[in-house]
Design goal:
Blueprint (H helix, E strand, L loop, with lengths): L1 E4 L1 H7 L2 H16 L3 E2 L4 E5 L2 E10 L4 E9 L9 E6 L5 E6 L1 H19 L6 E5 L3 H11 L6 E5 L3 H15 L3 E3 L3 H4 L4 E4 L18 E4 L12 H5 L3 E4 L2 H7 L1 H8 L8 E3 H7 L11 E4 L4 H18 L3 E3 L5
Parallel strand pairs: 1-7, 8-9, 8-11, 9-10, 11-12, 12-15, 13-14, 13-15
Antiparallel strand pairs: 1-16, 2-4, 3-4, 4-5, 5-6, 6-7
Length: about 325
């Protein structure tokens, strides 16, 4: 019997602390060369794209295929993770992935922030007020003792709701930014938008800032300008080959000669290396997140085990030889 985990099941079973631990573990395994995670495949559709992501995490004996779509569907439909045993090939679970995707993306930024941000970072700024922005701030607040966060987004009503919800969840002041300049005063900056033109400009970045850029994982989107990338002492990604195909910011910066691909490091390499990553407190650091399948495999496996333990989710009868 396989399990079906709905969005509600995943919301009930998943915590940011668990997600960060899980993603940190799989990043470390990747940095040790123990994970197979080929770049995402994309197939054009008349009004969007079908996207397929796959990974095998052999030390966990788990593998997965995620099917998702972009631009065409306005609902959460059309997104599913198939989790299987990598030794037997047996399907273990089918998981809806909208909630899980936001959770693991927030966890990835949490791990990156823990590795790259200054230890004394106390303030955060968020571009965006959607689902991903919520888990981004949650992930950052899980690894740094934030005292305040500011947010900016085109819709004032969304911002007000975001501030009220996240202030309650994180037990700290989360407020609407009064100006763009206020955002650049933060120690940690987060971009979680669907912008097609840069929203974070390098000319305003202060020394010592860490940036998590997560909203752009296709060539039609871009959140950072070339100057922002150029000013970074460390540029990290979750998967270098996927970044070479999908990150408009890094592709542009390399074409302009502001950064070389051999300077772009994978978070897994940093996690496996251990020790201090940042050279000085003045360094500006960047984590460019694309969202990769090994994160889905690891978190999906954790949620599957938790569901089995707690008797949550629906059993699906599958024919087995």
């Amino acid at each position: 019997m396989a399990l079906f985990l709905s969005e509600k099941d995943i919301e009930k079973l998943g915590s940011m602390a668990d997600a960060i631990d899980t993603v940190r573990q799989v990043f470390t395994l990747a940095g040790q060369g123990r994970v197979s995670n080929p770049p995402r495949q994309s197939i054009d559709l008349p009004r969007g794209a079908l996207r397929l992501t796959t990974a095998v995490v052999a030390p966990l004996a788990r593998m997965a295929v995620k099917v998702s779509s972009t631009l065409v569907f306005k609902s959460n439909s059309g997104r599913l993770l198939i989790l299987a045993d990598s030794e037997s090939g047996r399907i273990l679970a089918l998981l809806e992935v909208f909630q899980m995707g936001a959770l693991r993306t927030g966890a990835a930024s949490g791990v990156a922030t823990d590795l790259l941000a200054r230890r004394d970072a106390r303030t955060a700024a968020v571009f965006g007020s959607g689902r991903q922005a919520r888990t981004q701030l949650w992930g950052v607040a899980s690894v740094r003792s934030l005292e305040r966060a500011t947010v900016i987004s085109p819709n004032p009503a969304h911002v007000a709701h975001f501030c009220a919800e996240m202030s309650e969840r994180l037990k700290l002041p989360v407020v609407a930014a009064q100006s763009d300049a206020e955002l650049y005063e933060a120690d940690i900056m987060i971009t979680a938008t669907t912008a097609q033109r840069p929203v974070l400009l390098g000319k305003h970045l202060r020394p010592g800032t860490h940036v998590n850029a997560i909203g752009s994982n296709m060539l039609s989107r871009r959140e950072l300008d070339d100057e922002a990338v150029r000013k970074c002492a460390i540029v990290a990604v979750d998967n270098r080959e996927q970044a070479r195909q999908e990150s408009a910011e890094l592709i542009s910066a390399t074409e302009q000669g502001f950064v070389a691909w051999d300077r772009v490091v994978e978070i897994g390499e940093l996690a496996a290396r251990g020790g201090a990553v940042r050279q000085t407190d003045a360094d500006i650091t960047l984590f460019k997140s694309l969202g990769v399948a090994m994160e889905d495999v690891a978190l999906g496996a954790r949620l599957y085990e938790r569901a089995r333990e707690q008797g949550v989710a629906i059993d699906i009868p599958l024919t087995e030889d």
